[in-house]
Amino acid sequence: MNAVTIAIALVVGIVIGVDLACLFQRRSRRLRKRFGPEYSLAVVETGDRWRAESALEHRAKRAKNLHVHTLTPTEPLLEAWCEVQGRFVDDPNGSLVEADRLIASVMSAEGYPVADFEQRAADIPSGGRRELPWRTPNRAEGFARPS
C-alpha cells in the first residue's frame, strides 16, 4: 500500500468515527428530551447509558404500537375515584386495591395492556406525558368534584 491509500483509509475511518459519535449523541439527546427524568433514572438503574438507551428505545417502540386513545372523564368515573380517595383513611388497603382496579379499567379502556403491573407502569410514560383530570381534580378545568 502506498501512502495515499493509507491516508484515504485513515480519513474515511475518522469521518465514519465522527459520524457515529454524532449519531449516538443525537440519540442520547432525543431520548433525554422525550423521557426527561426517566432517562436519568434508567441510566442509574442499569448502570450503563447504552443499555438504558436501548431499553428506552424498546419502550418507545412498544408505546408506538399501542392503539391508545384518550377517554373523556365521565361523572361515574369521577365519583368512583373520589369515593376511593374518601375511603383511604378508614381502609387504606381496600382503597388501594380498588384504586388499582379503577386505574386498570381506565387504562384498558384507553388501549393500554393491563395484564402485568410492571409493563403497565412502564407503558404509561412512554405513551406520552399528560395529566389526567381525575388524577389532579383541583387543576382540572370544567370538572367539578362530586359531592
Structural features, described:
By secondary structure, the protein is mostly helical. The protein folds into 2 domains: 3-65; 68-147, no CATH class. 69% of the residues lie in helices and 0% in strands. It is built from 6 helices and no strands. Helix 1 (3-35) packs across helix 2, helix 3 packs across helix 6 (117-126) and helix 4 (75-87) packs antiparallel against helix 5 (92-110). The radius of gyration is 23 Å and the shape is elongated.
- What is the number of domains? 2
Main β-sheet, in a few words? Answer: none
Radius of gyration: 23 Å
Catalogue the unreliable spans. Answer: 129-147
Could you say which overall geometry the principal axes of the C-alpha atoms support?
Answer: elongated
Q: Tell me the series of helices and strands, N- to C-terminal.
A: HHHHHH
* Overall mean pLDDT: 79
Number of helices: 6
For the termini, the CA-CA separation is 86 Å
**Assembly classification:** single chain
**Helix share bin:** 55-70%
Strand tally: 0
**What class do helices, strands and sheet pairing give?**
mainly alpha
Strand content: under 5%
Quick rundown:
The chain is an all-alpha fold. It has six helices and no strands. The C terminus is likely disordered.
